[in-house]
C-alpha cells in the first residue's frame, strides 16, 4: 500500500527541498490563516463569501494535517500495510475497499500497541479518511 507520507515525499521531489518539518509548519500556518479569516469584521455579504472560502481552506488544512499527523507518521514509521487487515478479519463478504468496523477496530489495537495514544486519537479523529485509505491504493 502506498503510504501517505510517501506520497508527500513524491510531491517533495517535484518542489525541491521540502521537509516534514516544512509541511508541518505549512499546516500550522494554514490553521492560523483560517482562524484569522474568521475574526475579520466584514459586511454580511462579504462575510458569507469569505466564510465559504474559509470552509474550503479548513477542509484542505484538515486533510493536510492528517497527512502529517501522528497516525500517518505511525503508519510511515512502522511501514504498516493496511491491506494486511484484510487477512486478519474474518467474515467480510463486502467487496468494498473501505475498512469495515472489524478492520477499523483491529487497526486501532495495532496502532495503540505500536504508537500509543496520540496516534490512536488522530486515527479516531480522522476515521472517515482512514477507512478510505485502502481505496486510494486501488487508483
From TrEMBL:
Which Pfam family is one of those matched by this entry? DUF19
Q: Which InterPro entries match?
A: T20D4.11-like_dom (IPR002542)
Q: Identify the residues that the record assigns to the T20D4.11-like domain, covering every copy.
A: 21-127
Give the protein's recorded name: DUF19 domain-containing protein
Q: Which species?
A: Caenorhabditis tropicalis
Amino acid at each position: 500500500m502506498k503510504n501517505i507520507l510517501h506520497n508527500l515525499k513524491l510531491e517533495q521531489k517535484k518542489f525541491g527541498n521540502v521537509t516534514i518539518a516544512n509541511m508541518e509548519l505549512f499546516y500550522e500556518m494554514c490553521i492560523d490563516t483560517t482562524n484569522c479569516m474568521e475574526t475579520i469584521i466584514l459586511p454580511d455579504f462579504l462575510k458569507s463569501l469569505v466564510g465559504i472560502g474559509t470552509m474550503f481552506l479548513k477542509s484542505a488544512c484538515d486533510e493536510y494535517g492528517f497527512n502529517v499527523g501522528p497516525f500517518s507518521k505511525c503508519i510511515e514509521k512502522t511501514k504498516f500495510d493496511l491491506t494486511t487487515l484484510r487477512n486478519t478479519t474474518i467474515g467480510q463478504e463486502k467487496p468494498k475497499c473501505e475498512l469495515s468496523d472489524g478492520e477499523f477496530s483491529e487497526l486501532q489495537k495495532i496502532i495503540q500497541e505500536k504508537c500509543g495514544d496520540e496516534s490512536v486519537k488522530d486515527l479516531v479523529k480522522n476515521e472517515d479518511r482512514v477507512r478510505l485509505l485502502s481505496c486510494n491504493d486501488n487508483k
